[in-house]
Amino acid sequence: MNSIICGVDVSKDWLDAHVWPGGAAKRFANDATGIAALGLFCRGHHAAHAVMEASGGCERLGFMLLWAHGMPCALVNAKSVRRFAEAMGYLEKTDRIDAAVIAHYSAVKKTVPTPPPSAAQQRLTALVGRLCQVVGDASVNKQRRSAARDAETCASIEAMLAFLKREERRLEGEIASIIDDDPLWAKLEQAFRSLKGVAGRTVARVMAELPEIGLISNKAIAKLAGLAPIADDSGRRAGNRHVRGGRAGPRGILFIVAAIVAKYDPHLAAFQQRLQAAGKKKKVIRIALARKLLVILNAKARDARSEFANAT
Q: What is the pLDDT of residues 170-185, one digit of tens each?
């Protein structure tokens, strides 16, 4: 028997809900009061869970509060929902129609509720995200400094760079404290940093943006990071297997760190040399090294999690 699902289309100000099957629909404000009413609406129509798209952060309040009100909630990929809509012939696009499409997609896909991250995980993710913003702002200001000519502008940029440097160090200290205070995270950090070239900032990015590391297979973690080659075969044609999708943040840092680790780790260095000897393109080697490093980190995380579980 199919479950009753409430699809929710999220915008900055509104939450449009649609119950599948049944067709009941209603709009709620995207605030605490509206979300509480949405939870009552879901329960009133006997929905097993609510489903919403990941919408650039606008969904966070609704997702967290629905769980707090006892209504399980799932997040789905917006691009997948859009492609499903086109395949099913939904040519029109309104908030109300989108809510119905999300519910229909969820019913076909048989999505399951996604439990919210812990408070510590949320704080780590927020701090790591802010650190990335500060580092990016510093890079922009360094470029501006190189182009500046008058003394007053240069002094202003220097003052901004000094502030950003202090903020960067403060955030790094907060992140390090969060990791040190959690016994499991501390063990994971120790395992990751056993590879020469893997620094604290890399550990923080992986823990914040790939919290599944060590909990899923090597193939699954590579696909999650967008480092798994995707088959493109049809009939007699064997197409090139490109990587696509996945989480851009950890993928970007893995590209950089893998090249550094390959200078020190004999296994990764030998792997790189075999690819070069085979005449592989630089981009292919770069992707393969990042995937190899991620697989190594995933294995280390799996062992660390197992040791921690056996010790407690």
A: 999 999 999 999 999 9
